[in-house]
Amino acid sequence: MPHVCVWFVQHVVRALFLHKSRARSAEGTRARHDSAKVHNDNNINRARFSSIGDGVNTESSSRAMREWQEATDASLQCLGRVLLHLPSARHGSLTHEEENMQKRARQKVYCLLFEGILEGVFSTTCGERSSKSASTCNIPPAMATLLQVYNETDWRYPSVAIFVKCLHAWGLHEMLRRVFYHVYRRERGQQPTYNGKKSNDGSVLNNGAGCAAKPKRYSLSLYTCELVIESACRARDPSTAALAVDYMLSQLLHLRSAAEQQPHEDVRSCGDDNNTAAVVTEDLIGGRCIAEWTRLIHEEIVPRVDKVFCQTGIDTKRQWMDDISEAKVAVASAVQ
User: Fold this and answer.
1) Domains in the chain: how many in total?
2) Is 56 helix (H, G, I), strand (E, B) or coil?
3) Based on the domain organization, do 37 and 133 belong to the same domain?
4) Do 94 and 62 touch, CB atoms closer than 8 A?
């Protein structure tokens, strides 16, 4: 059953992509024809021929757009039913292997759908029935459909990072904030230990010494955390932005530690022999090395968050910077 759901959603997204391509192609043909018509309107015969072609192209474009809208409307109605019955891993009768298979299937399904939303495969002008749930918010009907079924149990790697991108794209900061806090609280208890010293916010640090951390997976990439910070600053929510900075610093320390513990794995550094290489996956590190991320946080992100703290009057004494200062020192020491 899980594999069937993934297969079905893959075909739905693929079919909608083809409808989108046809609609865009027909629209482009119509635009080119309109442009040519302007240059030929001084010739009567050409103008008559152009008017006939204009009607054909307009009808073709309208038909392609209508078919895309109808396909999106039908897909959302069907997906709404499928997602409600998508197998979960909460049944006690499942084996450990079956539970993992169910979880992976759910994550794959939501990744496909959120990526489809970001790529615009769902028409945003679908029928009335699909648009009702989105009438109160300026969000795509597909996003409104997924918001009804994608819940806290699914806010995990890798789908939650794509979900955050969707929320950021449509300015849904309150929902984004709720998702980030849930992930932060869940993963905070899994923070690695750095020589047993805890900071004020409960994370454990050491001023740059190697950490004895067991491997873990972060649900949000460093790039996704940038989006959280950008959304929080725009919404004048510096507290969320500060936690996102803390999350990023913790992740950088973990990547540095993983590089030391598994030197045989693929690593990424900035080309400086003095830099400590980090074991990374592209979805977490986002094409930058640890030193580049550290400089970005220190020179751009922290000053921006501090500015919002001061503007809102929440923390004019910069206490938040003291709370993460030890983590900043630890990361800076790791890349020197």
Assistant:
1) 2
2) helix
3) yes
4) no
